[in-house]
Design goal:
The chain is an alpha/beta fold. The protein is 35% helix and 16% strand. It contains 8 helices and 9 strands. The two termini are 39 Å apart. The relative contact order is 0.12.
Amino acid sequence: MEFDVFTLFPDMFTSYLQASILQRAITRGLVTVRLHDIRAWAPGRHHVTDEPPYGGGGGMVMKAEPIFNAVEAILGSPPQHPVILLTPQGRLFTQKVAQELLSFPRIGLLCGHYEGVDERVREHLVSDEISIGDFVLTGGELPALVIIDAVSRLIPGVLGDPNGAIDDSYATGLLEYPHYTRPVEFRGWRVPDVLLSGHHAEIARWRREQALRRTWLRRPDLLKAADLSEADRKYLQHLEEESSKGDKLERT
């Protein structure tokens, strides 16, 4: 999987890409990340990449010419691969979108900054716009890293556990079940006995029920689209009945 990142601040990516799972994936050739400084394609001695907006108002707007020059020089004219603008006005990034992006062998990530980009970039260059949430950041660099991370961990071989991404929160439509590790007891809090039993079917059932319970408590909206079995529905009905009796299952 190849990522071409177009940004005014390439140094913001270096430390994150040189650590942990992403570093190993890049070293092994499973992921390639190329950082392109948009300023290098800005004409003139001063390489100006932003200007005040027409019509007045505060802030600066990234100029169209350097962005077009950079993207077309790397990805072709017109671009031969998807070009995604990171913007709070884009469609919401989800695990499903990460799976969608995985289908492309190469994508471009355009990091907006300041007040955003010249509208002609939206209209005539990018093929998609993505937001990582309903909030505003200083620029698109953090969202670009989020997308690189989320998509990369879906690539076979990137995670140590080949099934590691299968049970992640949202991968199955539910929040993930709880995890425990050594010691068995810590400050009087024990690991659930079922996880120590060695009974794989019971462990699987417990994990599924815990995922259902956690989703029901924290993100009940996800249950509307989740692929639920009859056993799942019965367990959710049990949670509802227990809650109606006043047991400590209130959504928080």
